Amino acid sequence: MSNIKVKRILLLLVLLLTVVLHSCIAWDPVFRYDGKHVDCAATVIYSIPGIESLSMDELLILDTDSYGRVMFAYKATGSALLVEHSDAGYDGYFLFVVIMQASDSENVYFLPEQNYIGKTLIDDGNITNKSILTKEYVASLFSENELLSLQSTNEWEQPLKSLDIYTCAPIELEKQDYHYPNKKQKQLAEYIANPPLKYRLFRRDCEGKYSYFIQVINDYEEDDKTEYTWYLVVLDKDQNLYNGSTSVIKLDQSKDLADQVKAFLAQNNWVN
After folding, report:
1. For 102-115, what is the mean pLDDT?
2. 60-96 per-position pLDDT tens digit
3. Alpha-carbon dihedral of residues 169, 172, 176, 180, nearest 10 degrees?
């Protein structure tokens, strides 16, 4: 029996065990960052599609404006969604420059789908498990025009508007011990072919709707890498599909993820 056939059998066994043993599927843990400026780290999690927070991630404050906005750099060790969307392969790292509009004791506020820019870092042996995050390093990757454009798009040095117009997210992310009820899996089975591997809360809106990323294993490829598909779904406050098939999207990883997220949420009457 060929190696590929063996891997296909193992994949089927894994999927079967997922269905049989897990009457409900746990969220994937997404917030493991344990450094300073946790409000900035929370902004990253809720801003950037597919990012996973790990304890080895790094965060560096770059600048603040007169009204309390913070521009910072975040080195992420990657996630399946972002890795597959990049040219870095599975050895890639990511460096983002992100702007947070404001924060208080409970929440962070930001302008979604326009508050970050990013670069893929190819691991040449100099960045693995090493602290490389300095202002000089950031300046070597992002031009002054790129940083100024990001600031302009995020109203840098302009008086803050009412916080109601910004996307709001909690600083203390929910613990990942919540289980996804069976009946919701049955709702999604009509639109998602394979059993989901992971669910991850992305955002909530002001009306109580939820958006989740869902990761699905498709198959093993011949080069021994696992092939994944990612979906984004919107649920109502009772965690039922908000509007049938229009509330499920298969993300196209060959296109800009932020544009897809923005259009999809708008289609589902998302209210920041």
Report:
1. 90
2. 999 999 999 999 999 887 665 665 555 555 456 788 9
3. -40
d(CA 250, CA 237): 22
Evaluate whether 268 touches 242 at the Cβ level (below 8 Å). Answer: yes
The neighbouring-strand residues paired with 107 are 170
| DSSP per residue, the chain | --HHHHHHHHHHHHHHHHHHH-SSEEBPP-B---SS-HHHHHHHHHHSTT--B-TT-EEEEEEE-TTS-EEEEEEE---HHHHHHSSSGGGEEEEEEEEE-EE-SSEEEE-TTSSEEEEEEE--SSSTTS----HHHHHHHS-HHHHHHHHHHTTTTS----GGGSEEEESSPPPTT-EE-HHHHHHHHTT-SSPEEEEEEEEE-TTS-EEEEEEEEEEE-TTSPEEEEEEEEEE-TTSSBSSGGGGEEE--TTS-HHHHHHHHHHHTT---
Residue 238 CA to residue 42 CA, distance in Å, equals 24
Q: Is the pLDDT of residue 207 over 70?
A: yes
Structure tokens at 58: 């790094």
Q: What is the largest CA-CA distance in the chain?
A: 67
Give me the phi and psi of 215, to 5 degrees please.
-105, 135
